Amino acid sequence: MTRSVFAKLILTYLVVVTVTLASSGLFLSYLFRNYIQVTRERQLISRGVALAGLLRDFVTLRKDPARTMELLDTLEQFLDAPLLIVDQRGLVLAASSRNARLRGIVLSQEEVGKVLQGEIITRIFTRGEQPYLSAAVPIFVGGRVAGAIFTFSPLSEMAVVLGNLRRLVLYAFLLGLGLSTILAYALSRNLSRPLHEMSSVAMEMAQGRFGRKVKAAGQDEVGQLARTFNYMAGELENLERMRRDFVANVSHELRTPLTRIRGYVEALRDRVIEGERETEQVLGIVLEETLRLNRLVDDLLELSRLEAGRARGEVEAVDLAAVLVRLRRKMEQQVAKAGLSLGIALPEQLPPVLATPDRVEEVLQNLVDNALRFTPPPGEIRINAGQEGKMVRVAVKDTGVGIPPEELPFIWQRFYKVDRSRSSEGTGLGLPITREIIEMYGGQIQVESKPGQGSTFSFTLPVAEERHSS
What we know:
- The chain has 10 helices and 12 strands.
- The chain is an alpha+beta fold.
- It has 3 domains: 156 residues, PAS domain (Beta-Lactamase), CATH 3.30.450.20; 87 residues, Signal transduction histidine kinase, dimerisation/phosphotransfer (DHp) domain (Helix Hairpins), CATH 1.10.287; 147 residues, 2-Layer Sandwich (Heat Shock Protein 90), CATH 3.30.565.10.
- It has a 5-stranded antiparallel sheet with strand order 2-1-5-4-3.
- A hairpin with a 2-residue loop joins strand 9 and strand 10.
- About 1% of the residues have low confidence.
């Protein structure tokens, strides 16, 4: 059973070409055969009509039979067509030399019936092994049929012409088949090569090797498929790198607190640490590290739910002013402790946004927490908002240390931290979670930052359109 695409393509091409050429050859043969036959019939009929006028007197008056016979012989040689003249009874009055034996006999009603009724008839018959085409033309005298003239033409010439034509068609068929085979081979190879290459590259990708790319030549569908395949390979490579980075980052984030917890627990077990005060301090550290691990696991689970689309909840019209009031009340002590100020500026006619209150508050809290960690005192954090068409844009601006331009593209990655010296603060998942929440509701988030001048994180959410009851 043929399995390769190359073999299937070339076989399909050859079958189509063979059927097409064979059908065309048969059709041309049939067409030319009909054309030659119809042309010959017309020639015989036109000659018969012309001779009918010349031989009218002979049929009615039997005038000058010797001269008539001489005329028939001359016409037979000139036209290469035997001739017969019959009267209204079907009696053969005269015949050219080839049919001289028919003189004086009466033709059957089947042979002369319709022509003696005034119709021009043609038919094909066989005499011996030779096929003939005959045309019978009535001879009219005074409006009535006085007889008829029969002209004959052997079809052997037509057979010769058709034989030559069939040979030419056969040669053309073989030539066309040969050229088509070469063309089909080239086309099939060009089509199957990138597919075979993609299969080979896919096998390498399945084994974890993503370096090889498919040559994407041409602008056709195969070329587009090759480019799409290369794009997919690049994305899979990025996903594989992100997976490795994720595993490495999770391992790193877990190793530090687990190592500290293990060290303190072993110290307590071995009674290295004694005394109630020292024990409480160690247990406090263990509790803090445990809570840190708990936050990391919670953030990972939340990010996973967000990416899977299972944390959207029922959207509603959310009043940003009310959310910001709750946020300020919740974070005012933390902001004051950091020696910073938190300012909020909203327009009076700010429309509600389409989201869920808890998620909007989570986004704002993540951005404010991020600003708190990177804004030294005395600094300021400001939150403002405004409507832009069918979206509301909210901006959180700080006067902190800013983000280097080369690090801006990476801040949305899991566990990425701009300031490595503060690696103990946060899980490195706040910004990825924030972006997933914003995009989940159809918005976008972006950042503008300059080192030493602070950062501005801004996001958009769709306006909650009013629903009027009918």
